[in-house]
């Protein structure tokens, strides 16, 4: 199946139009300013000298590259986007400071010069991957190909070092990313050598770099995605962003070379992540140690790592799988991620970010020392504008402008609608318009032409829907003869309560509240203290109320037992009723530091 690229789709109104406007008008500039202040842009000039402060970090180039990629995606829709000139300056620095081989890295060009290609964990290939993605995007946006040609030259050099000369101290990128970028480079240039290099790295994972960089207890083969050949994998292991970037590339390669064994591994890993290792928000990676997956069902709420980039990487993997195999489980996961564990990563004003996205916050425990000797590591409770390791903000900058790229795929006779957003699209003789307020409600009007069938994803959260046409359901999609039809769909979107698998011990006796794809939470700022002790009745009433954060709040009744001053007291006290307000999870922590709980006790 082919994807309809986001460049062919205009989101014209509604939820994602607001978010795209936010990124275009606020986030991109704000991230630029923070990166300029923290020397990420000046580092590209490669003038840093030993002894000076602010030595260019090994992966600053990737931060800038993702930001340029985001600017390019905005330029595709708005040629006059004012930050174009800032991106041009950065690109000019990258091109002009490359060495005689085409090599560019703002860290290794000014320091550790003799350590090039020696440290697998030092992100050289990762940075190149992001630079390639930026260069491909820049060419698409502007038609200018100097940046792309520079990155081809750099990639040719990498091919020489890794394939022809075999002179590097490692053979797989410790942090995957280049692999998927090489597939993009191949698609952009048609040069088979870049696909060969993608295959080279994909096939090397788990076959070689056995004892490289194991200087830290979490920097092991799992962390570096080198524990076994990809085609043997059954579970997602190690650093979650690395794992999902790598599986994204594996899906690309499996599809392009028609590799069933590799594709089967992708399917197994996807199922393992989404059936056993994913939060209800679509967050993944439950420990900060190595930013990693742990074991099945280990999904602690308060210490959840659930990095914003990890959510993005899962959406990247899922959206590749949905283009290979028509099964709605992939698009369901994309939807879960984009409305929850990804979107909580950026504040409602578009300026600040969470790196970690926990499902539970109690400032009394998160923000103070909870053991005598050592502070337990806890997620921060308020978003910040920049981090020392600031991979997430520019990932938001590139992800939201290109989000429509996950909406549609098409085969000879069928157009698949994976996501519902108010939009117009035109590509390859197929055109489709969606009119909807989704996910504020579940009504969607669709008119399409240029396709014989249209396949509409029935979201997994939806038990009751109507479509004004005759349809058959296959793999989670309602298939309709489309030509000339005005389709009206209504996905009933009642408030639902969900329980977790009983192996998820942090959720024992608790329920989460969802409406459509959106997970809700209770915050201290709207409610009482100690939300941990509030029960809700799953059979009680859940009313929608005024939207503070784009989508309606939910009002229900909470039940608490009377407060006791004792540390322990008799259990048989009567419940007291309190009004309980729930807000969309993506909007938590936008009104100061406050308690926050996704999982509430079930009465
Ligand atoms: O290593 C570069 C980035 O920093 C990763 O993608 C993030 O997970 C964080 O480790
Ligand atoms: Zn990140």
- N-to-C span: 47 Å
Inertia-based shape: globular
CATH topology of the largest domain: Glycosyltransferase
- What is the number of helical segments per DSSP (H or I, 4+ residues)? 13
Which structural class do you get from the secondary structure elements? alpha+beta
Question: Roughly how many Å is the radius of gyration?
Answer: 24 Å
| Ligands | beta-L-arabinofuranose, zinc ion
CATH architecture label of the largest domain: Alpha/alpha barrel
Provide the domain count.
Answer: 3
Low-confidence spans = none
Strand order of the largest sheet: 1-4-5-9-12-11
The CATH class label of the largest domain is Mainly Alpha
Strand content: 15-25%
Mean of the pLDDT scores?
A: 96
* Number of E-type strands: 22
- Please describe the biggest sheet, giving its number of strands, its sense, and whether it closes into a barrel: 6 strands, mixed
Describe, in plain words, how this protein is organized in 3D.
Helix 4 packs antiparallel against helix 5 (146-164), helix 6 (178-189) runs antiparallel to helix 7 and helix 10 (308-324) packs antiparallel against helix 11. The mean pLDDT is 96. This protein has 3 domains: 14-406, Glycosyltransferase (Alpha/alpha barrel); 409-491, Maltose phosphorylase, domain 3 (Sandwich), CATH 2.60.420; 495-602, no CATH class. It has 13 helices and 22 strands. The protein has 603 residues and is an alpha+beta fold. It has helices spanning 15-37, 60-77, 84-97, 124-142, 146-164, 178-189, 192-204, 240-256, 260-276, 308-324, 328-341, 363-366, 392-399; strands at 2-3, 9-11, 360-361, 408-410, 414-417, 423-427, 430-436, 443-449, 453-457, 465-467, 472-474, 477-481, 486-491, 495-498, 510-515, 518-523, 535-536, 543-549, 551-560, 576-584, 596-597, 600-602. The longest helix is centred in the first third of the chain and has 23 residues, at 15-37. The strands form 3 sheets. It has a 6-stranded mixed sheet with strand order 1-4-5-9-12-11. A 6-stranded antiparallel sheet has the order 2-6-7-8-13-10, with no helix packed on it. A 6-stranded mixed β-barrel has the order 15-16-20-19-17-22. The radius of gyration is 24 Å and the shape is globular. It binds beta-L-arabinofuranose and zinc ion.
């Amino acid at each position: 199946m082919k994807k309809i690229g986001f460049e062919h789709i205009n989101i014209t109104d509604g939820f994602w139009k607001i978010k795209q406007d936010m990124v275009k008008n606020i986030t991109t500039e704000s991230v630029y300013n923070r990166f300029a202040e923290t020397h990420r842009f000046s580092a590209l000039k490669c003038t840093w000298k030993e002894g000076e402060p602010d030595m260019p970090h090994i992966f600053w180039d990737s931060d800038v590259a993702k930001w340029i990629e985001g600017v390019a995606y905005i330029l595709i829709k708005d040629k006059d986007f004012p930050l174009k000139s800032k991106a041009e300056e950065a690109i000019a620095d990258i091109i002009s400071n490359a060495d005689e081989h085409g090599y560019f890295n703002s860290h290794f060009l000014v320091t550790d010069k003799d350590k090039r290609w020696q440290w697998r964990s030092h992100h050289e290939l990762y940075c190149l991957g992001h630079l390639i993605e930026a260069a491909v995007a820049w060419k698409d946006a502007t038609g200018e190909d100097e940046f792309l040609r520079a990155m081809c030259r750099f990639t040719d050099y990498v091919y020489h070092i890794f394939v022809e000369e075999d002179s590097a101290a490692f053979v797989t990128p410790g942090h995957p990313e280049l692999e998927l970028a090489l597939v993009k480079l191949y698609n952009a240039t048609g040069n088979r050598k870049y696909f060969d290099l993608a295959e080279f790295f994909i096939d090397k994972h788990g076959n070689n770099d056995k004892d490289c960089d194991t200087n830290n207890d979490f920097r092991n083969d799992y962390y570096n995605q080198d524990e076994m050949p990809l085609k043997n994998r059954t579970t997602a292991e190690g650093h979650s962003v690395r794992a999902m970037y790598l599986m994204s590339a594996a899906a690309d390669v499996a599809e392009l070379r028609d590799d069933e064994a590799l594709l089967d591994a992708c399917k197994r890993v996807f199922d393992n992540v989404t059936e056993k290792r994913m939060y209800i928000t679509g967050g993944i990676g439950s420990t900060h140690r190595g930013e990693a997956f742990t074991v099945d069902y280990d999904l602690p709420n308060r210490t959840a790592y659930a990095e914003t980039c990890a959510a993005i990487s899962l959406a990247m993997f899922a959206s590749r799988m949905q283009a290979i195999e028509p099964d709605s489980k992939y698009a369901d996961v994309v939807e879960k991620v984009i409305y929850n564990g990804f979107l909580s990563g950026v504040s409602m004003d578009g300026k600040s970010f969470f790196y970690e996205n926990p499902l539970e916050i109690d400032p009394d425990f998160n923000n103070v020392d909870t053991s005598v000797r050592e502070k337990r590591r806890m997620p921060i409770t308020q978003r910040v504008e920049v981090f020392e390791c600031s991979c997430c903000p520019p990932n938001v900058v590139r992800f939201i402008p290109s989000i429509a790229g996950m909406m549609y795929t098409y085969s000879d006779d069928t157009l698949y609608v994976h996501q519902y957003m108010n939009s117009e699209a035109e590509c390859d003789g197929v055109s489709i318009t969606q009119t909807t307020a989704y996910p504020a409600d579940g009504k969607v009007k669709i008119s399409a032409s240029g396709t014989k069938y249209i396949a509409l994803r029935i979201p997994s959260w939806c038990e009751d829907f109507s479509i004004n046409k005759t349809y058959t359901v296959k793999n989670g999609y309602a298939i309709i003869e489309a030509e000339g039809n005005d389709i009206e769909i209504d996905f009933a979107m009642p408030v639902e309560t969900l329980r977790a698998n009983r192996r998820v011990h942090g959720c024992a006796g608790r329920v989460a509240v969802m409406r459509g794809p959106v997970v809700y939470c209770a915050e201290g700022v709207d409610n009482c203290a100690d939300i941990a002790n509030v029960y809700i009745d799953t059979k009680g009433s859940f009313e929608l109320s005024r939207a503070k954060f784009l989508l309606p709040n939910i009002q229900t009744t909470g039940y608490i037992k009377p407060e006791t001053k004792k540390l322990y007291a008799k259990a048989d006290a009567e419940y007291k009723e309190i009004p309980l307000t729930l807000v969309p999870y993506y909007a938590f922590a936008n009104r100061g530091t406050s308690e926050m709980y996704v999982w509430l006790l079930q009465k």
